[in-house]
């Protein structure tokens, strides 16, 4: 690979990556959450893409991805930090996602707007809002300091994380219209 070329890793739901070098990690989110962590001195970091806050009473299925649930994804980060000899507080941490993909189906009028208000998110039980709250709580529990977030609202997000610089880019997509929902 030439010095100017970067390797691209695409994460699916439940995937996790940790490393360094000239690597870009990408994923596509709806209600899911991506957490990126980056160590600015060591220039290493990782990204997870979790689907749900917890496994709850769901049995472990053979072939299931290791980062499908928030707590399990955070365990993967903890293992990577131990392996690299780093600590959580030294990382720049960003979260993205938790979007409402079907705003026409939300019961609460406040959830139908394109901007998700923080005061409403506190008690909202939509999966996107629960994922956002869970991500924040898990980060605190593991000793990470959240630097930036791009969460809530309606529609998808494409997330690109550059491990050589720590930069994160987000491109927004639209939520499904009621007509599109009927066809799905």
Compile the SSE list and pairings:
Layout: E1 7-10, E2 16-20, E3 23-29, E4 33-39, E5 44-50, H1 70-84, E6 92-97, H2 118-121, H3 127-141, E7 146-151, E8 157-162, E9 168-172, H4 178-183
Parallel strand pairs: 1-3, 6-7
Antiparallel strand pairs: 2-5, 3-8, 4-5, 4-6, 8-9
Task: Describe the model.
The protein has 184 residues and is of the alpha+beta class. It has one domain: 60s Ribosomal Protein L30, Chain: A, CATH 3.30.1330.200. The chain contains 4 helices and 9 strands, in the order E-E-E-E-E-H-E-H-H-E-E-E-H. It has helices spanning 70-84, 118-121, 127-141, 178-183, and strands at 7-10, 16-20, 23-29, 33-39, 44-50, 92-97, 146-151, 157-162, 168-172. A 5-stranded mixed β-sheet has the order 2-5-4-6-7, with helices on one face. Strands 1-3-8-9 form a 4-stranded mixed β-sheet, with no helix packed on it. A hairpin with a 4-residue loop joins strand 4 and strand 5. The protein is globular, with a radius of gyration of 17 Å. The model has no long low-confidence stretch (mean pLDDT 85).
Quick synopsis:
The protein has helices at residues 70-84, 118-121, 127-141, 178-183, and strands at residues 7-10, 16-20, 23-29, 33-39, 44-50, 92-97, 146-151, 157-162, 168-172.
Based on CA atoms alone, the radius of gyration comes out at 17 Å
**What's the architecture, going by CATH?**
2-Layer Sandwich
Low-confidence stretches: none
Determine and state the CATH class: Alpha Beta
